[in-house]
Design a protein that fits this description.
single chain, Rossmann fold, 3 domains, two-stranded parallel ribbon, 6 strands
Length: about 300
């Protein structure tokens, strides 16, 4: 806002702008708040306000929240979750789906990009945003302003650019790979995690839930007669049978034991619980698939 005011785009009368800690001194109808977080960013001011976690700003039923920017592609889920959270507080929300009067693009128009080039007068131009069609449109715009074709460099990912005193040219291609990041920890995911997830997506997974009594180590109820009634009887495949080679197309059978305290749990049950379950995750061969299934069937049969 300071830049907008200094350039003359935003003209405010003295006393119009106040500090955030002063809003309690004014009636709600006399306040307009400019708040960051229109894309549903985690920990943004708008998200914290919608969750009731902001110290100074609280939403009321007479408030109106205006999203002045359309969701950036890929942010739709977080934006609409934010809208839903605000609506649940009985607050009126104006956004792109119910009004087209408020959207302001965060990207410069062609005229603005052209004006910027005229002001800066760069020797070389490298568009770095958008899709190839946007980059080629930028190149054509620059050529209309008098730039030569070789003065506008269009780059692919990994393309090196070598700058000289009065020149810029392409260098070598740096090999790149996709990096998958865990959403919770923010760390790079290991290759074996991706491999296992891919196998699970292709072969599927079956989870048997069995509740075991802590007093005698016996099943509390027959899993086949559970409340959801979604258990089916399976016939284990013969190791090496067609369609199950190397376990690539076989579902993985994991045995989960719900135990209320395991002081009296028999050694056989503990063996299955702590040894066979890891095997179901670590090994994908027909042998372990068949072995685990047989042990699970033996346990469930009593």
């Amino acid at each position: 806002m300071e830049i907008s005011k200094s350039l003359g785009y935003l003209r405010l009368k003295p006393g119009t702008e106040i500090r955030i800690d002063q809003i309690k001194n004014f009636k709600d109808r006399d306040l307009t708040l400019v708040i960051a977080g229109s894309q549903g960013q985690e920990n943004s001011a708008m998200t914290r306000i919608s969750n009731g976690e902001h110290r100074e700003v609280k939403l009321g039923s007479n408030d109106v929240v205006i999203f002045s920017a359309d969701p950036i592609p890929g942010n739709e889920i977080s934006v609409y979750e934010l809208v839903d959270t605000i609506v649940k507080k009985d607050v009126r929300v104006v956004y792109s789906s119910n009004s087209s009067d408020f959207h302001v693009s965060g990207h410069g128009s062609q005229d603005e990009l052209s004006d910027l080039i005229k002001m800066v007068k760069p020797k070389k131009l490298i568009p770095i945003g958008g899709t190839p069609r946007h980059m080629y449109a930028y190149k054509n715009m620059a050529m209309d302003l008098g730039y030569k074709r070789e003065d506008v460099l269009l780059l692919d990912d990994g393309q090196e650019v070598i700058f000289g005193r009065d020149s810029a040219s392409f260098g070598k291609i740096v090999p790149l790979k996709n990096v998958y990041v865990d959403e919770v920890s923010g760390e790079e995911m290991e290759s074996f995690v991706l491999r296992d997830r891919q196998k699970l997506s292709e072969g599927g997974i079956v989870i048997i839930l069995a509740q075991v009594s802590s007093s005698d180590g016996q099943l509390v109820d027959n899993p086949g007669n559970s409340r959801k009634k979604n258990f089916q009887r399976f016939t284990p495949p013969t190791p090496g049978a067609s369609g199950c080679n190397r376990g690539l197309s076989c579902p993985i059978i994991s045995l989960w034991l719900g135990v209320i305290g395991d002081k009296n749990l028999s050694s056989n049950l503990r063996k299955i619980r702590f040894i066979l379950f890891p095997l179901s995750l670590l090994f994908w061969s027909d042998f372990y698939f068949y072995y685990l299934f047989q042990e699970a069937a033996h346990l469930l049969s009593g």
